[in-house]
Amino acid sequence: MVELANVTLSYDGKEILKDFNLKIAGGERLVILGRSGSGKTTILRLIAGFTVPERGRIMIDGKVVAEEGKILVPPHRREIGMVFQDLALWPHMNVGENIAFGLKIRKVPRKERRKKVEEMLQVVGLEGYEKRRIDQLSGGQQQRVALARALALSPKLLLMDEPLSSLDPELNSRLRQEIVRLHALFGFTLVYVTHSKEEAEEIGERRIVL
Ligand SMILES: Nc1ncnc2c1ncn2[C@@H]1O[C@H](COP(=O)(O)OP(=O)(O)OP(=O)(O)O)[C@@H](O)[C@H]1O
Ligand SMILES: [Mg+2]
């Protein structure tokens, strides 16, 4: 499904990844662990297409998407769901509009969008928050909106960068189980970055440490 082959990447002359190899099977739940600054987010950005490998190549579904400093398939053409550390929610849209955004771009009819938004709000436990503005939410609630937005598109590949880190233990536990349940339901491939042992154990079928 995803392959990074001999990927080398440096910032300001410092090598972050050197001849890095990683194969992720379709439908797998892979957890990436590693200390701060070890390159976890960088790997997700490479898969998503926001960062280009200096050397080596990146393949998705058998197709080379980036190679030797060149992007061959841009991020929006890779059909990847993402929940990144900075969340990147749209501050000028309410919760429902954020969740429906990708569906609207894909011209999914309004009625279907509403249904999907409702379903996703339920999944992440934010029923009744549809009309709230993003800046009127707590950090944990914003994380759940980001999760709902990514899941709404039923992506084949989902990248998550510490998506549950600011949640309280109870909600963290609930959403961990929810992610595993949704994975079983939809069968997407999951690449999940975390510092948490509980998350790594529950979510990862395979774990790698950088
Ligand atoms: N755009 C950039 N320009 C320069 N250096 C960068 C850039 N992005 C990342 N780095 C550096 O690359 C290294 C790896 O960063 P990365 O964000 O992948 O780490 P991480 O494992 O996700 O860390 P954390 O657990 O703190 O999120 C760090 O040393 C970081 O300072
Ligand atoms: Mg990071």
Explain what the structure shows.
There is one protein chain. The chain is of the alpha/beta class and 210 residues long. The protein contains six helices and ten strands. It has helices at residues 40-48, 95-105, 110-123, 139-152, 169-186, 197-203; strands spanning 2-11, 14-24, 29-33, 55-60, 63-67, 70-71, 80-83, 157-161, 189-193, 206-209. The strands form two sheets. Strands 2-1-4-5-6 form a five-stranded antiparallel beta sheet, with helices on one face. Strands 7-8-9-3-10 form a five-stranded parallel beta sheet, with helices on both faces. β4 (55-60) and β5 form a beta hairpin. α2 packs across α3, α2 packs parallel to α4 and α3 crosses α4. It is globular. The two termini are 20 Å apart. The mean pLDDT is 92. Residues 11-12, 16, 34, 36-42 line the site of adenosine-5'-triphosphate. Magnesium ion binds next to α1.
Question: Can I get a quick summary?
Answer:
With 210 residues, this protein is of the alpha/beta class. 35% of the residues lie in helices and 27% in strands. The chain is built from six helices and ten strands; from the N terminus they run βββαββββαααβαβαβ.
